[in-house]
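Problem: given the chain below (112 residues), write out its structure.
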Amino acid sequence: QVQLAESGGGSVQAGDSLTVSCVVSGLSFSSSAIGWFRQAPGKERELVARITPSGSTNYADSVKGRFTISRDNAKNTLYLQMNSLKPEDTAVYYCNVAWTYWGQGTQVTVSS
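Solution.
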């Protein structure tokens, strides 16, 4: 059974930093493409960043230069380091594996 468990969300001020994590079990983590999506109220879920098994990354234009995605294959864990947070980054952040499996989400709220 594939399980994804996000953690690390919270409420912060604009300009602050936050790191969210996702622990994955039940599949071959190191050979999977994994990523972070987010969904703000009233909006569609959107890709934030993804990382391939080889470590190649890509980011949404809105977060380039501020967010960093990384993976620790030894810990089966995905990270998203978020710097210079803006109110428009407020959303539920979801971990995704292989475009198929989803976590339950973690809320990130940025106030101005």
